Amino acid sequence: MKTVIILNTDVMGHGDRVLGRKILSAFLARCRSMHEVSAVVFYNSGVHLVSKDSPVLGILHELHEHGVDLLPCMTCLDHFGLEPAVGQASDMDEIIRELDSAERVITL
Hints:
Elements: E1 3-7, H1 17-31, E2 37-42, H2 57-65, E3 69-72, H3 74-80, H4 92-101, E4 104-107
Parallel strand pairs: 1-2, 1-4, 2-3
């Protein structure tokens, strides 16, 4: 089942940001064992995760090497003045196509 994960923030959950970063890192590390994840879409502050200073950059590189497409929103990258250190900057048309072809979408 083709699965796409949406990350619209740079933490997981609401509340304590340090805890949110820690559990997001654990989640992404375990995503390597999810063979059905085909893409991760990043938008709004989630695009910080693909930047060179990201605390999960190594994990994202591993996911990308295992064939997971990493699709940060180009408009969001521009807004925050970021360049992706991993993945391919994507426009909304590409993001919509990816979501439309997914059998399951998980939003964190």
